[in-house]
Amino acid sequence: MKNECIREAAKTNGGTKHYNYPAVVDRGVGNPDLLADEVVSEHLTRNIQFFGLESQEKVTQSYVVVIGLGGVGSHAASMLLRSGVGRLLLVDFDQVSVSSLNRHAVATREDVGTPKALCLKKHFQSIFPECHVNAKVLLYDSSSEEEILSGNPDFVLDCIDNIDAKVALLAACVRRGLKVLSATGAGARADPTRIRVADLRESTNDPLSRSVRHRLRKDYGIDGGIPVVFSLEKPKAKLLPFKGPSGEEENPSDYQVVPGFRVRIIPVLGTIPAIFGQIMASYVVTQLAGLQVQMEPVVNLDTDHYCILHQRLIEHEELLYGTAMQVQETMVYLGIKTLKPLSSYPSRYEKMIFFIEML
């Protein structure tokens, strides 16, 4: 029902173009002989030199689903395409807006009002036409799960920023045994050096991650095992009040195509979601090619640094509360006294990380 509403809203929204959504034919898996084509081989020559021909063939024969095609998803999908992924399914219910042009990978002003999925497919045809691109103007939910996740994709990229849809998608991927990489909040950040890839249990300073972790654990009994791209940086701004055409504050829900989805009210520096998307594409392509890449640890401190931080925390607690007894007990429990790294206890050290960030 929601997806029918999306189609109708897209057709009747004042000031935008009207679209009839044709059925997209499933053209099957990537062509295993694609690299025999001279132009394709030249297009991917640097990848072949990097991975080797056999590994690049694995990429070319792969099928990847990208759900959510905004600042993060559009860049991820674009680089997957340019890297030679043979088959892509692009899914988003939303349209290109003028305000999304600061972060979208390929959209132009002429694309405003166009469904994001169709926008990407159009541009992709001129970049790597040999890729089988399937575009669906759909909202991910339980009613569209089978349509989106069937076909045994080699990887699913979760670039959704709505918690209900994100949690449902991640749970479905776990249930189906599908490899999935999830993006957390890229808005209101500015430091690209703080972006990491780690298990969901290790993501910190991100309200979306915390909510997703809680919901997955509470509703589905999932306590980790899902890789995510996230930033260690604290958000530099909060959601802004929504102002309508008159300039006065209005209720964002009055402008939403689908209830529960935000309407352009989070500050976003366009470079950060782009980097999130590039990281996701790099992670997936190397995984598909079979190249093992050691990701930067979330916390990478030696024993001396832990001892210094421990001492500062004791002093901080004594100054505020007159005692550091609980700090001593907590440190022993976490394993600091036995010189084990904090990353050995990913679900229990967030308070310590918070303190590190405050220093």
UniProtKB/TrEMBL annotation:
Gene this chain is encoded by: LOC113698014
The organism's place on the tree of life at top rank: Eukaryota
Listed InterPro entries: ThiF/MoeB/HesA, ThiF_NAD_FAD-bd, Ubiquitin-activating_enz
Source species: Coffea arabica (Arabian coffee)
Every THIF-type NAD/FAD binding fold domain range: 45-291
One Pfam match: ThiF
Name of the protein in its database record: tRNA threonylcarbamoyladenosine dehydratase-like isoform X2
SUPFAM superfamilies: Activating enzymes of the ubiquitin-like proteins (SSF69572)
